[in-house]
Amino acid sequence: MDVDFDDASKKEAQPAPAGGRKSSALGTLSNLLGRAGIRVNGDAPWDIQIKDPRAPTRILAQGSLGLGESYMDGWWECAALDQFFDRIFRANLTEHVTAKDVLQTLRARLLNLQNSRRSWQVGKEHYDVGNDLFSAMLDRRMTYSCGYWKDASNLDDAQSAKLDLVCRKLGLQPGMRLLDVGCGWGSLMQFAAENYGVSCVGLTISKEQAEFAQRTLKGLPVEFRLADYRSFNVEGLEKFDRISSIGMFEHVGHKNYTAFFDACRRSLSDDGLFLLHTIGRKRTRNMIDPWFDRYIFPNGELPSLAEISTSVDGRFVIEDVHNFGADYDKTLLAWHARFEAAWPQFASKYGERFYRMWRYYLLCMAGCFRARQIQLWQTVLSPQGVAGGYRRHS
């Protein structure tokens, strides 16, 4: 999330009127949020309540990072964070960034923040945070990606529908081999092996995920390999009938897109299919949110459709693109509800600041998807084009 505090910061640099700097910051913040119909210390569920007088100055000076960290520190409250962020994004307060946000974005453009050494960081800092926490928050198969709510009314059904949708789009048949790049806890592999009779290999950069999944899925024809995609099957000697990548491409980074698609191409049979499921942004901007980068997904970067299209050029034929990003709002709210219900058993282990960080993450993302600021795409690719054309399953 990149919030437009740049103009507000410039105003703040002017001599403070009577009442002092803090009251000036409060007024500036009130005017800024007022553009989104949000009142400071108002009584609507999306209004924010200032609990520490230092909060406005910190938010205006530090933008997204200051907004998130001051919430984590208890400096402001909001009864409905998802509604707060929905209004922020719909009012386009995210179109301009602070100096700190610009520096973070320049780092992403100039440096490869997702190189082979850095790629393991997100596994250690996010996905290894605790299998017990994720087990309580996610569905019964621990599927950490957007559910498909077309005909579903609960999280388990939505995730089962999504996994089945992936299998049907890939045309899985008994005896096929499936490679799942960024396999998480193996939910797709479990579903595909049990319901479609395929054998699976999963790649992950999370040691905790691999060990947990290997234990829980013992007996199924699934194999987990702790490996970065760049080091996998370098000679291209191992071929798979189908490849999937569900919710992993957000960690690849624009400097590595071609390497990612090269790795998938060399591992896919010539008559195979590859399904890419990824969050994406509506514009090609390579924006990096400093709060999310520091606390949730280190070195994460959302692609645009244009970047995906350019990167697959000469490698794959784009057979189908399906956007059901609005379903991520429901998914995140379901995760949040389960997280809140389970929190008492985790409070002593993780602490209050983690609790506020995690709910901020889930509800900010829900508001962002609700405002259609970011999308969720499933793209089906083939090496040479499906003879007679590809037909979508939905």
UniProtKB/TrEMBL annotation:
Q: Which GO terms describe its molecular function?
A: methyltransferase activity
Cross-referenced Gene3D superfamilies, in alphabetical order?
A: Vaccinia Virus protein VP39
Q: Which InterPro entries match?
A: CFA/CMAS, CMAS, SAM-dependent_MTases_sf
Q: Which GO terms describe its biological process?
A: lipid biosynthetic process; methylation
Q: Which UniProt keywords apply?
A: Lipid metabolism, Methyltransferase, S-adenosyl-L-methionine, Transferase
Q: Where is this region: Disordered?
A: 1-23
Which Pfam families does the annotation name? CMAS (PF02353)
Highest taxon above the source species: Bacteria
Q: Which family does it belong to?
A: Belongs to the CFA/CMAS family.
Query: What is the protein's name according to its record?
Result: Cyclopropane-fatty-acyl-phospholipid synthase
